[in-house]
Amino acid sequence: MIHRNAPLTPTGRLRLARCVVEDGWPVRRAAERFQVSHTTAARWAGRYRRHGETGMYDRSSRPARCPWQTPPHKEARVLRMRREHRIGPLRLAARTGVAASTAHRILQRHDSPALAVLDRATGEPVRRYERSRPGELIHVDVKKLGRIPDGGGHKVLGRAAGSPNKDRRHGMGYAYLHTALDDHSRLAYTEDLPDETAPTCADFLQRATAWFARQGVTVERVLTDNAWAYTKNTWRQTCHELGISPRWTRPWRPQTNGKVERFHRTLLDEWAYHQPYTSDAQRQAAFPDWLDWYNYHRPHTGISGHTPASRITNLPEQHS
Q1: 5, 69, 65: which is closest to 40 by C-alpha?
Q2: 300 and 306 in contact (C-beta within 8 Å)?
Q3: How far apart are CA 270 and CA 262, in angstroms?
């Protein structure tokens, strides 16, 4: 790529050099004709004499040798520690005896992926995928959320006052948030249910399938983890009746169901923990508006800033 301030392109340099070398023009005359300095004209003419047309292109500014570059054995140690322990430049510096900035440059020089895009279990780059059409795959999962006693929980009253609610026998108990999320559009359907038993999960799937059908989406496959409720015949039979193919994640691989896991994190950050609520009813009353905001108005970074509903035919116009 030619420097943005270069007065001559390679073609112009070649014409200048030929005027001097082949046609016998004085260097100052050629410089005046091509509107460059005398030294520039002399440089391109000299390069043409030595290298011909290939000398008319910019050279790399990289030095021929770098005596202060980190020795290869130290670079190899930094890269090995990165692979084995999956740690960042600061911790690599403490273990290898190089500066953190040096460790960072070594990782960059060897195209080492950022830790954020690596799988924690294997250290391999995470493979992202997305189904090509709505309904091709629906992710289903349950998020347990502690219920809020009247008057507020620990976020309102403090840890000491809110700790009795953690008592399994006498506390307020849990809300079980069942979610079905479309892989292609990220459109989500969520219900607050009293448990996560097999019949409850099966009934939820029936209502979620009906809701997606009202949005114009036909559910073809459903992906869940290997929780007890999703491995029973009740779940399999319900999928069969609905014409849905059930799928399960590999054991100890929640990343496979990561889209709905990420939705639950967004749900906690932007609704459940977004503000201190004084009762469970108050928090539940705020949920429908938030879910509508998520589906129809909130830009989703996973789909280039579009809203989930924008990927479903004719849905945005219904919630303008």
Answers
A1: 5
A2: yes
A3: 12
Strands 138-146 and 188-193: unpaired
Compute the distance between CA of residue 53 and CA of residue 26 in angstroms, rounded to an integer. Answer: 20
Give the Å distances, CA to CA, from 237 to 5, 39, 143, 209, 227: 71, 84, 23, 15, 16
The pTM for the full model equals: 0.64
Going 103 to 104 to 108 to 109, the CA torsion angle's sign is negative
β partners of residue 143: 177
Enter the tokens of residue 41. 């004209």
Residue 72 has a CB neighbour count (10 Å cut-off) of 8
Q: How far apart are CA 147 and CA 11, in angstroms?
A: 74
Q: pLDDT tens digits, the chain, 320 residues: what are they?
A: 566 667 888 999 999 999 999 999 999 999 999 999 999 999 999 999 999 999 998 888 888 888 888 899 999 999 999 988 889 999 999 999 999 999 999 999 999 888 877 766 677 776 667 888 999 999 999 999 988 887 765 565 555 555 555 555 545 788 999 999 999 999 999 999 999 999 999 999 999 999 999 999 999 999 999 999 999 999 999 999 999 999 999 887 777 888 999 999 999 999 999 888 888 899 999 999 999 999 999 999 889 899 999 998 655 455 44
Helix runs in the chain, H state only: 10-21, 27-34, 38-51, 72-85, 89-96, 100-109, 154-157, 159-162, 198-214, 233-242, 258-267, 280-296
Are the C-beta atoms of residues 191 and 176 closer than 8 Å to each other?
A: no
What is the rounded distance in angstroms from the CA atom of residue 229 to the CA atom of residue 153?
30
Residues 6+ apart with CB under 8 A from 88: 115
Nearest to 144 by CA among 171, 170, 179: 179
Burial of 227 (0-12, 13-18, 19+ CB in 10 A): middle
Long-range contact set of residues 289-292: C-beta below 8 Å, sequence gap at least 24? 291/188, 291/190, 292/319
